[in-house]
Amino acid sequence: MKKIIIGLLFLTQVAFGQSNNRQFIGLSIGPSFPLSDFSKSQLGDSTSGFAKTGIAMSFNYAYRVSHNFGFQLIINYSSNSLNNSKYKKELESEHPNYGVSVESTKNWSSGGLFLGPYLRFPISENFSWDIRTLAGYFGSYSPNATIRTTNKNDLNDKGEYYLVSSRASNFGYILGTGFKYKVGSYYVMLFGDYLQSTLKFKDVTGWDLDGEPYNVTFNQRISHFTVTGGVGYIL
To answer: How far apart are alpha carbons 32 and 194 in whole angstroms?
Structure first.
Protein backbone atom coordinates (compact mmCIF):
# COMPACT_ATOMS: atom_id res chain seq x y z
CA MET A 1 0.00 0.00 0.00
CA LYS A 2 2.82 2.35 0.88
CA LYS A 3 4.51 1.64 -2.45
CA ILE A 4 1.27 2.38 -4.33
CA ILE A 5 0.87 5.73 -2.55
CA ILE A 6 4.49 6.65 -3.29
CA GLY A 7 3.97 5.64 -6.93
CA LEU A 8 0.84 7.77 -7.27
CA LEU A 9 2.60 10.75 -5.72
CA PHE A 10 5.48 10.29 -8.16
CA LEU A 11 3.12 10.13 -11.17
CA THR A 12 1.31 13.24 -9.97
CA GLN A 13 4.57 15.14 -9.70
CA VAL A 14 5.60 13.97 -13.17
CA ALA A 15 2.24 14.96 -14.68
CA PHE A 16 2.24 18.44 -13.17
CA GLY A 17 5.93 18.86 -13.78
CA GLN A 18 5.40 18.23 -17.48
CA SER A 19 2.15 20.21 -17.77
CA ASN A 20 3.78 23.60 -18.21
CA ASN A 21 1.72 25.38 -20.89
CA ARG A 22 0.03 22.05 -21.66
CA GLN A 23 -3.22 22.65 -19.76
CA PHE A 24 -5.65 25.52 -19.62
CA ILE A 25 -9.19 26.28 -18.57
CA GLY A 26 -11.28 28.88 -20.34
CA LEU A 27 -14.60 30.67 -20.29
CA SER A 28 -16.13 32.35 -23.33
CA ILE A 29 -19.39 33.97 -24.44
CA GLY A 30 -20.97 35.15 -27.68
CA PRO A 31 -23.91 34.91 -30.08
CA SER A 32 -25.63 31.67 -31.08
CA PHE A 33 -26.98 31.60 -34.66
CA PRO A 34 -29.68 28.95 -35.29
CA LEU A 35 -29.36 27.05 -38.57
CA SER A 36 -31.44 24.83 -40.86
CA ASP A 37 -34.58 23.32 -39.25
CA PHE A 38 -33.88 25.04 -35.95
CA SER A 39 -34.31 28.49 -37.50
CA LYS A 40 -37.08 27.47 -39.93
CA SER A 41 -40.40 29.26 -39.39
CA GLN A 42 -43.11 27.33 -41.23
CA LEU A 43 -46.06 26.30 -39.08
CA GLY A 44 -47.03 23.52 -41.48
CA ASP A 45 -43.56 21.97 -41.18
CA SER A 46 -43.20 20.10 -37.88
CA THR A 47 -39.40 20.36 -38.10
CA SER A 48 -39.50 24.17 -37.73
CA GLY A 49 -37.90 25.45 -34.55
CA PHE A 50 -38.76 29.17 -34.91
CA ALA A 51 -35.49 29.92 -33.06
CA LYS A 52 -33.92 33.38 -33.06
CA THR A 53 -30.30 34.39 -32.63
CA GLY A 54 -29.42 33.97 -28.97
CA ILE A 55 -26.51 33.77 -26.58
CA ALA A 56 -23.96 31.01 -25.98
CA MET A 57 -21.52 30.32 -23.15
CA SER A 58 -18.76 27.75 -23.02
CA PHE A 59 -16.38 26.40 -20.39
CA ASN A 60 -13.51 24.30 -21.61
CA TYR A 61 -10.55 22.40 -20.24
CA ALA A 62 -7.73 21.40 -22.57
CA TYR A 63 -4.70 19.17 -22.16
CA ARG A 64 -2.04 19.16 -24.86
CA VAL A 65 -0.47 15.71 -25.20
CA SER A 66 2.17 16.73 -27.72
CA HIS A 67 3.28 19.86 -29.51
CA ASN A 68 0.31 19.83 -31.91
CA PHE A 69 -2.24 17.42 -30.42
CA GLY A 70 -4.42 17.33 -27.34
CA PHE A 71 -7.86 16.74 -25.86
CA GLN A 72 -10.59 19.13 -24.79
CA LEU A 73 -13.59 18.90 -22.48
CA ILE A 74 -16.36 21.43 -23.17
CA ILE A 75 -19.45 22.27 -21.13
CA ASN A 76 -21.69 24.63 -23.07
CA TYR A 77 -25.04 26.39 -22.83
CA SER A 78 -27.13 28.31 -25.33
CA SER A 79 -30.43 30.16 -25.16
CA ASN A 80 -32.47 30.98 -28.28
CA SER A 81 -35.82 32.71 -27.95
CA LEU A 82 -38.90 31.79 -29.95
CA ASN A 83 -39.48 34.05 -32.95
CA ASN A 84 -42.81 35.43 -31.73
CA SER A 85 -43.42 37.67 -34.75
CA LYS A 86 -42.95 34.88 -37.30
CA TYR A 87 -45.01 32.46 -35.21
CA LYS A 88 -47.78 35.09 -35.04
CA LYS A 89 -47.60 35.67 -38.81
CA GLU A 90 -47.90 31.94 -39.52
CA LEU A 91 -50.90 31.57 -37.20
CA GLU A 92 -52.68 34.55 -38.74
CA SER A 93 -52.00 33.18 -42.20
CA GLU A 94 -53.73 29.90 -41.28
CA HIS A 95 -56.53 31.66 -39.34
CA PRO A 96 -57.18 34.89 -41.28
CA ASN A 97 -60.34 35.72 -39.32
CA TYR A 98 -58.37 36.09 -36.10
CA GLY A 99 -55.90 38.57 -34.72
CA VAL A 100 -53.13 36.78 -32.84
CA SER A 101 -50.56 37.70 -30.21
CA VAL A 102 -47.72 35.39 -29.14
CA GLU A 103 -45.81 35.79 -25.88
CA SER A 104 -43.01 33.32 -25.17
CA THR A 105 -42.11 32.84 -21.52
CA LYS A 106 -39.26 30.33 -21.91
CA ASN A 107 -36.58 30.07 -24.59
CA TRP A 108 -35.01 27.10 -26.30
CA SER A 109 -32.46 26.33 -23.55
CA SER A 110 -29.75 23.84 -24.49
CA GLY A 111 -26.50 22.52 -23.08
CA GLY A 112 -24.12 19.61 -23.14
CA LEU A 113 -20.91 17.93 -22.11
CA PHE A 114 -18.48 17.11 -24.93
CA LEU A 115 -15.05 15.48 -25.17
CA GLY A 116 -12.70 15.15 -28.11
CA PRO A 117 -9.32 15.81 -29.71
CA TYR A 118 -7.92 19.04 -31.03
CA LEU A 119 -5.05 20.02 -33.30
CA ARG A 120 -2.89 23.04 -32.54
CA PHE A 121 -0.97 24.91 -35.24
CA PRO A 122 1.45 27.54 -33.86
CA ILE A 123 1.52 30.70 -35.97
CA SER A 124 4.03 32.47 -33.72
CA GLU A 125 5.46 31.95 -30.24
CA ASN A 126 2.28 33.30 -28.58
CA PHE A 127 -0.33 32.84 -31.29
CA SER A 128 -1.93 29.55 -32.40
CA TRP A 129 -4.76 28.20 -34.53
CA ASP A 130 -6.82 25.28 -33.16
CA ILE A 131 -9.18 22.81 -34.82
CA ARG A 132 -11.39 20.66 -32.59
CA THR A 133 -13.91 17.83 -32.92
CA LEU A 134 -15.97 16.75 -29.93
CA ALA A 135 -18.93 14.49 -29.17
CA GLY A 136 -21.04 13.79 -26.12
CA TYR A 137 -24.28 14.38 -24.25
CA PHE A 138 -26.65 17.15 -25.32
CA GLY A 139 -30.03 18.19 -23.91
CA SER A 140 -32.59 20.91 -24.48
CA TYR A 141 -35.84 22.42 -23.19
CA SER A 142 -38.38 23.53 -25.78
CA PRO A 143 -40.06 26.95 -25.40
CA ASN A 144 -43.12 27.96 -23.39
CA ALA A 145 -45.55 30.31 -25.08
CA THR A 146 -48.99 31.84 -24.57
CA ILE A 147 -51.10 32.52 -27.66
CA ARG A 148 -54.06 34.90 -27.51
CA THR A 149 -56.64 35.24 -30.30
CA THR A 150 -59.44 37.67 -31.08
CA ASN A 151 -62.11 37.12 -33.75
CA LYS A 152 -62.03 40.12 -36.09
CA ASN A 153 -65.77 39.80 -36.69
CA ASP A 154 -66.70 39.27 -33.04
CA LEU A 155 -64.47 41.02 -30.50
CA ASN A 156 -66.09 39.02 -27.72
CA ASP A 157 -64.77 35.81 -29.25
CA LYS A 158 -61.37 35.56 -27.58
CA GLY A 159 -59.13 32.64 -26.74
CA GLU A 160 -55.95 31.83 -24.84
CA TYR A 161 -53.82 28.83 -25.74
CA TYR A 162 -50.51 27.41 -24.59
CA LEU A 163 -47.33 25.72 -25.74
CA VAL A 164 -45.81 23.88 -22.78
CA SER A 165 -42.07 23.25 -22.47
CA SER A 166 -40.66 19.73 -22.67
CA ARG A 167 -37.17 18.25 -22.22
CA ALA A 168 -35.16 15.88 -24.43
CA SER A 169 -31.57 14.64 -24.68
CA ASN A 170 -29.41 12.70 -27.12
CA PHE A 171 -25.96 12.38 -28.65
CA GLY A 172 -24.51 15.59 -30.09
CA TYR A 173 -21.29 16.75 -31.73
CA ILE A 174 -19.27 19.92 -32.19
CA LEU A 175 -16.94 20.94 -35.02
CA GLY A 176 -14.95 24.05 -34.26
CA THR A 177 -11.95 26.19 -34.98
CA GLY A 178 -10.41 29.27 -33.44
CA PHE A 179 -7.43 31.23 -32.28
CA LYS A 180 -5.57 31.66 -28.99
CA TYR A 181 -3.16 34.45 -28.11
CA LYS A 182 -0.97 34.02 -25.06
CA VAL A 183 -0.57 36.97 -22.69
CA GLY A 184 1.47 35.96 -19.65
CA SER A 185 -0.40 33.15 -17.91
CA TYR A 186 -3.56 33.73 -19.96
CA TYR A 187 -4.99 33.07 -23.40
CA VAL A 188 -7.28 35.47 -25.24
CA MET A 189 -9.53 33.21 -27.31
CA LEU A 190 -11.90 33.50 -30.26
CA PHE A 191 -13.71 30.37 -31.52
CA GLY A 192 -16.41 29.43 -33.99
CA ASP A 193 -18.26 26.16 -33.33
CA TYR A 194 -20.94 24.24 -35.20
CA LEU A 195 -23.18 22.06 -33.00
CA GLN A 196 -25.80 19.55 -34.05
CA SER A 197 -28.10 17.08 -32.31
CA THR A 198 -31.49 15.54 -33.13
CA LEU A 199 -33.79 15.35 -30.12
CA LYS A 200 -37.09 13.55 -29.58
CA PHE A 201 -39.45 15.54 -27.36
CA LYS A 202 -42.05 13.27 -25.76
CA ASP A 203 -45.36 14.07 -24.06
CA VAL A 204 -45.41 17.70 -25.18
CA THR A 205 -48.66 19.14 -23.84
CA GLY A 206 -50.71 22.25 -24.54
CA TRP A 207 -54.02 23.60 -25.83
CA ASP A 208 -54.61 24.09 -29.56
CA LEU A 209 -56.62 26.80 -31.29
CA ASP A 210 -59.75 24.65 -31.14
CA GLY A 211 -59.51 24.75 -27.37
CA GLU A 212 -58.61 21.08 -27.15
CA PRO A 213 -55.74 19.76 -25.01
CA TYR A 214 -53.07 17.80 -26.85
CA ASN A 215 -50.17 15.50 -26.07
CA VAL A 216 -47.70 14.99 -28.90
CA THR A 217 -44.19 13.73 -29.67
CA PHE A 218 -41.95 15.49 -32.16
CA ASN A 219 -38.36 15.40 -33.40
CA GLN A 220 -36.31 18.57 -33.54
CA ARG A 221 -32.90 18.87 -35.14
CA ILE A 222 -31.05 21.54 -33.19
CA SER A 223 -28.11 23.04 -35.01
CA HIS A 224 -26.42 26.34 -34.43
CA PHE A 225 -23.18 28.17 -35.04
CA THR A 226 -21.64 30.06 -32.15
CA VAL A 227 -18.93 32.72 -32.18
CA THR A 228 -17.48 33.05 -28.68
CA GLY A 229 -14.66 35.10 -27.25
CA GLY A 230 -13.14 34.78 -23.83
CA VAL A 231 -10.16 34.21 -21.59
CA GLY A 232 -8.26 31.06 -20.70
CA TYR A 233 -5.93 30.52 -17.75
CA ILE A 234 -2.83 28.39 -18.29
CA LEU A 235 -2.38 25.83 -15.50
So the answer is: 10
CA distance 116 to 123: 22
Q: What is d(CA 180, CA 123) in angstroms, rounded to the nearest whole number? A: 10
**Domain assignment present for 3:** no
Q: What is the domain-level CATH number for residue 177?
A: 2.40.160.20
User: Residue 71 CB: number of other CB atoms within 10 A?
Assistant: 15
CA distances from 51 to 25, 116, 160, 188 (A): 30, 28, 22, 30
Q: How far is CA 203 from CA 144, 168, 214, 218, 219, in A?
A: 14, 10, 9, 9, 12
Q: Which residues contact 40 (CB under 8 A, 6 or more apart)?
A: 47, 48, 49, 50
- The predicted model gives 145-158 an average pLDDT of 89
**Which residue range(s) make up the domain with 44?**
22-234
Cα radius of gyration rounded to whole Å, the chain: 23
C-alpha distances (whole Å) from 90 to each of 81, 93, 108, 215 are 17, 5, 19, 21
Q: Per residue in 188-233, pLDDT tens?
A: 999 999 999 999 998 777 766 666 777 788 899 999 999 999 999 9
